[in-house]
Amino acid sequence: MTRSGTNNHKKKITAAILLGSIALAITLFTTVADAAAPKIPHKPDISHPKGSSPWPDYGEKPKTNTPEVKAWVKSIDWSKVPKLPIRHTDSPGDPPECPEKEVPEKDCWWTCTGCFAPDDVFECPGKNEWGLTFDDGPEPGVTEHLFDLLKEKNLTATFFVTGMKSTKAPWLLQDTIDKGHHLASHTWSHSGLTTLTNEEIVAELKWTEKYIFDHTGYKVKYFRPPYGDIDNRVRAIARELGFKTVIWSTEWDTQDWQLAENTISSKQIVNIFNSALKTLPNRKKGVVTLQHDGDKKLVPMARTLLDMGMKKGMKPMSIAQCLNDKVGYNAVPALPAAPAPKKPTTPAPAPVPPASGVKQTGKAEPEVSTPTSPAAKDDKEEPISAPGVVKSTANPGKKSSASTVSAGLSVAGWTLAAVIASFVL
Questions:
Q1: What PROSITE patterns does its record include (predicted)?
Q2: Is 292 a catalytic residue?
């Protein structure tokens, strides 16, 4: 073999060693990052009290004669709930029909008057802020594509999920949170709330809250009434249960849901959104839009509308972000606290006599009892101790991660050695 051939052979061997070492280093450091990332533990509790009902049936309004609903109803101060009429609908589950006679102003019935209550969320405080929301999910095979779209554009959104659809894809609830998005409630069965009794409204809201909590550890704070159907009776019940109402800004309903039903064209939706965009220069605050999850046709439409809005300087974000709500939930799971060693409760064992001719140094090490972490004993939700503050605790996996980091550094050293060898060779 010629000198040139020998050098080439050496270079190939060196390159192979170098590439292999780099690949191993990258793999190991990726493992280190995963091991070091704090995990939020939550043991799902999908059981029910003895003798109580199972989850409400899919596609049906929850029953109101169960122990859970009776307890939830009892927790409400009904003196704070105005006595307004139950609205009429020809088709149960659909929004109500507006009466021919004028609706009293005190009802603040959004469906028929467009009335917003002072604590309704229907716009973002900051100019050009865009409260990006998707209703009616989760839907396997669709919701994931929305996640991908939002990740591509580095955006977050609020997903208003229904309880009944969540039962078909509970893993998507945790995925929503894990991918940095905001979970909120869209009731259990997607019925017009003003057409329901007080007890039915409680059941719709609380069963959805319970299902999300039992599968994620997060207790939702925001809810959107299906069809925007709300009046002061519904609002008062929601407030008593700890929820904040979110509707959407006037003129910012995209009507995209009709695309799934083939009752509107993509061009018409674009025209609707363009009309809304023309109002931006006159707005002092941001907007909350209405878009939907649940059908594959809605994903490319979401991309189109996002591109249109962002081109005009709009800043999409979740409802929690636009309201500067640091937590966005009524309760969140806390990281487990690292257990602190207790002082020994028993005397230290007597030192072992030294062997003949051997000098003893130091003292015997007493046993240290370690308490069980409080989080491991109790699966109940942790209340938020202060607005915008999530309990911060040590990562119990830190010790093992440190040893992995040490191993990673060793591999990095070998990589550097391979680089040096390549120059020598």
A1: NODB
A2: yes
Report the alpha-carbon angle 115-135-218, nearest 5: 100
Cβ atoms 364, 352 nearer than 8 A: yes
Domain that holds residue 290: 76-96+103-325
202 alpha carbon, distance to own chain's centre: 23
Write a three-state SS string for 323-349. CCCCCCEEECCCCCCCCCCCCCCCCCC
Q: In whole angstroms, what is the distance from residue 156 CA to residue 165 CA?
A: 21
| Inside any domain, residue 361 | no
Look-up of token digits 């370690």 = 370
Point out the catalytic residue in the list 42, 181, 215, 292: 292
Of 294, 325, 356, the domain-final residue: 325
Is 135 in the active site? yes
Q: Which of 107, 135, 214, 256 is catalytic?
A: 135
4 in a structural domain: no
Asked if 92 and 156 sit in the same domain, the reply is yes
- Residue 15 shares a structural domain with residue 92: no
Report in angstroms the alpha-carbon separations of 345 from 86, 104, 164, 350, 371. Answer: 65, 71, 53, 15, 13
Within a domain: 274: yes
pLDDT in tens, 348-395: 454 444 444 333 333 333 333 333 333 333 333 333 333 333 333 333
Helix (H, G, I), strand (E, B) or coil at 67: helix
- Structure confidence by residue, pLDDT tens digits, 286-342: 999 999 999 999 999 999 999 999 999 999 999 999 999 999 999 999 765 555 555
pLDDT of 193 reads: 98
